[in-house]
Known about the structure:
Structural class: mainly alpha
Order of helices and strands: HH
Number of strands: 0
Radius of gyration: 17 Å
Shape: elongated
Amino acid sequence: MAPTVKEEIARLQKEESSKKAGAADVDEEKSSGDTELAVAQRLDRLEHLMREMNDRLKSIESHLTRQ
């Protein structure tokens, strides 16, 4: 599960860097509220992905114990 989380973090970081590169002409000053909101959204997404992975893992484990 840890490699999947690391891959997702790397993907998110890559998306973030590509967004920054595409928005180079835009004023890059953000208020702390915007930054906190972006961080909160990313955290929510990661938590959601972790819940999905846990559910999948439980499903796999239950199938394996039946066999």
